[in-house]
Amino acid sequence: MAIVNCPSCGAPVEFKIGGSIVTICDYCRTVVARSDRNVEDLGKVAAIIDTGSPLRRDLAGRYQNVGFRITGRTQMRHQAGGVWDEWYAAFDDGRWGWLAEAAGKFYVTFTTKTTGLPPFDVIQIGGRIGDLVVSEVGTATLISGEGEIPWRVEPGSTYDYADLSGPHGKFATIDYSEDEPLFFAGRETNLKELGLAGEMAAPGKRIKGERLTCSNCGGPLNLVAPDQAQRIICPNCGGVHDIEEGNLRYLEALRQKGPQPKVPLASKGIIDNVEYMVAGFMQRSVKTDQRYYWTEYLLFNPKVGYRWLVESDHHWSFVTPVNAGDVVDSDPRGAPRTMSHEGRTYRIFGNADARVEFVLGEFYWRVERGEKVRAVDYTSPPFGLSKEISGDSEINYSHGRYMQVDEVEKVFGLKGLQRPTTVGMMQPYTGGNPAKQWAFFMMALIVVAMFLAVTRSRREVLNESIDFSAPPATSTEWGDATQTQTDTALQGKPESSRVIFTKPFTLSGNRNLEVEGYADVHNNWIYVAGDIGDEKSGLLEPFDLPIEYYEGYDDGEHWSEGSRSQRVFLSAMPAGTYQMRLEGQWDEKSTPAPVHIVVREGVFRWSHFFLVFVLLTIPALWAGMKRASFEGSRWNESQYSAVGTEKESGDDDE
């Protein structure tokens, strides 16, 4: 450890780490650089802006099993006005680590030797370096700092940079402050992974607004995130204020007219187990065939940063930022038909310049009316994916989840929010998936059919050939009575009908029956009317077997009609012994052919299967038509068809 006197105020200044280049005097904020012979005064930095960071100097942690200690930080101002902290950590293995903190997120990076980095005037957002996507290109200004820092800090200096994002939280920065660009590679992290969770880190601030006064009208201004807000617009007069280092600077009165927030500013609500406060409200619009408007609420929680609550045509969604590297986007600067995120595919829905029309409350950037970004929206209900392209400097991705109106009312304690009358971009179809439901029932039907086919195997109970041309060899009391009645009915007529009884047979019960008849007829017919009966119970089940077959030649071509075989199915009958009464009728000019009769029980009827199939398919088709109509209404609101082809639109944006 080396102790020197500050060249500006003479106070003692310590260099605790051998690899540090400068240290900032705690008394006069002079940047003190050391060399082999003496120390150098590089100028003074501004006072540290309280960003509400849970980190602090001399805080010890452990990352990937290597201990470290935070030695200092610099504060950088974004070209759009935002401020972020860069903390510097000396690791036990001799490395320096950079901990960047912005909008509630933390990134740890280390200097990495890399060649072939593109120059700053060549690199573009959306470009790739390996599996990393360039998500931001900009210029930063050093405004403040404290403690020991491993690089030469010059107050007010600017440097160009490019931020890159990769899959699974990978992160990198290219620093163009030197002739040879520096590459810092690492990943997004959190306090727990840094070993800083719990008592080691300063407790996060509770959601608590700060009350200020409008410089124009004197009305109250409630700051939700006073340490991170960059601009606040008075809800009373529209007065615009920049927030610089904790102080208000009045800019202008917008004299704007616009919608009033349905969720009041400073309202609190819990979404996905996180409490948020409404910090800002804006209305935006796009122009396609006409101008469409929607509203957005900026939500804030100091532990997770900013989120959005979006309302469009009374449809609501909760929107969270996502890393560019976690989105599969084949054309980051354009509008491909699909994008993917976490294994889910999203289809393009809209592509237009989004313009800010009206603003109230506070924002983490210097928002202005008329501000535009290119917005490309994708849908996969109940989720959505959006990409906003800010000129040539930045690409931001966000993921939305559809919220029912009832949920929004419950979260923020509201009543009477208007219900939607149209189909929203992310609105899910609540009638289920007809195709999946139909497939499920079909599988169940097939399983049942196979079970019945296996467990109720068919059994032959009668196999007998009946010759109606010969008198019956046997009869029964039931048969004699029936025979007498039939013979009486045929008295005085040519013989073309006869009744014959089969041998008795046994049925096991509770199984359907199949009766099959075959006769070797040729250009002839025979009609068999039958009954299966039980003499004791008097139970009788009738059936008919019309058998006919004709063939011939017509103009040299063979033709045929009819069939020599017929079968009928009968319902299950109780167990018992049965006999079959068969009455045959035939052409009186011919001798009837013998009819071979086979009776089986437990025969699986595929016709029943197909009947159930039809009964299940009809409602599925109806449900499918309803869903198709729902989806058609959704895509009627889109600039694109469901397959991603762009529809014809009106004039370009104003």
How would you sum up the global shape? elongated
Number of structurally distinct domains? 4
Low-pLDDT segments: 198-208, 479-493
Q: SS-based structural class?
A: mainly beta
The tally of helices reads 4
Task: Give the overall average pLDDT.
Answer: 85
Tell me the β content. Answer: over 45%
Summarize the biggest pleated sheet: 8 strands, antiparallel, barrel
Tally of strands = 41
Q: Classify the helix fraction into a percent range.
A: 10-25%
Physical arrangement of strands within the biggest beta sheet? 7-8-9-10-15-14-13-12
Computed over alpha carbons, the radius of gyration is: 43 Å
**Head-to-tail CA distance between termini:** 64 Å
Structure characterization notes:
With 654 residues, the protein is mainly β. The chain folds into four domains: 2-200, no CATH class; 210-412, no CATH class; 434-455 and 608-636; 459-603, Jelly Rolls. It has an eight-stranded antiparallel barrel with strand order 7-8-9-10-15-14-13-12. An eight-stranded antiparallel β-barrel has the order 22-23-24-25-31-30-29-28. Strands 33, 34, 36, 37, 38 and 40 form a six-stranded antiparallel β-sheet that branches. A hairpin with a 4-residue loop joins strand 36 and strand 37 (539-554). Helix 2 (434-455) runs antiparallel to helix 4 (606-636). It starts with a strand and ends in an 18-residue tail after the last helix. The relative contact order is 0.08.
